[in-house]
């Protein structure tokens, strides 16, 4: 059973801190609740400074939550501050969703339409390339169906720790190769299929965005799940995305889905600029015949699509075994200096950055979409 914030609030309604008179919820003692899988973090502020009062409050919270959810791992961050009873609760960061995230300059969404075309591979290698170019980079794995970034960055067993930022518990992204990473993969059991309902998924994503200590970033890359469903809508609702990169193979069926992906971003009331299209698996080159190119999925399909829809063609990535191997062992191929694959990702990343500079010069910041009906994407 998944634990929700309202369940925890209900539990906290039953607890009163010594000397406060009203329950923790009624008395605005609870300043923040974060839930990541089984981990429940509760920030509480009480006015009674005695050690006994602090211990009693902490223990009661832990006991009451575990009594209801036996698997819950509870962390109470308790502070003491004599405050006026009528003081307003500290603002919930989820309430400011949609506003620019302080410290994050550019948010780039990597999307496709069709599954398995290489979004995650492009995200990982673009992140590595941007980092090598000297930028501060974060990656958010928003693939609620099959998160993979934690594997591609060789941190599958890592767990983000919680840190205290200005009195609030925040999740600290895991870091490897100089890149900060948060993935739903950190909070799910790899052997269990996780079925996320839309609202649950968007809540989890909101937490990884707003309840995380990303610090200063030049780029936050978001690896989207395949398709154009409600997860995508949740993300454009929650975040001012600076631009989108669409990945496709040259195959007709992938191109048709890529076109839908582009159309989603370009809808009048979503209006996220598409920075360009990356063609992945453009041709196959066997390791023993490096000069040979086999156009397994067709030739130049994504290039033609980019021309058709008047968006930039950012470059092509060949289908080579080393790219797949590098992804599987968690050492993105762009880390291998001087290889043709590294050069390909450098080219693509530079083209993306050039389009981004144009975009930031020509267009106002992306507004966040307020979608009031599932079918309509109606108001802004
Ligand atoms: N250019 C390439 N050459 C060889 N293998 C590749 C290439 N691009 C991607 N792959 C491999 O293809 C598989 C699918 O790639 P990836 O996971 O990046 O796609 P995706 O679009 O993110 O998939 P999903 O829709 O499931 O999220 C992975 O095993 C990856 O290593
Ligand atoms: Mg993926």
Automatic annotation (TrEMBL):
Residues 5-76 form the MIP18 family-like domain. One of its GO terms (molecular function) is ATP binding. It comes from the Bacteria. ATP binds at residues 113-120. Coiled coil: none annotated. Homodimer. This is Iron-sulfur cluster carrier protein. It comes from Wenyingzhuangia heitensis. The lineage of its organism: Bacteria, Pseudomonadati, Bacteroidota, Flavobacteriia, Flavobacteriales.
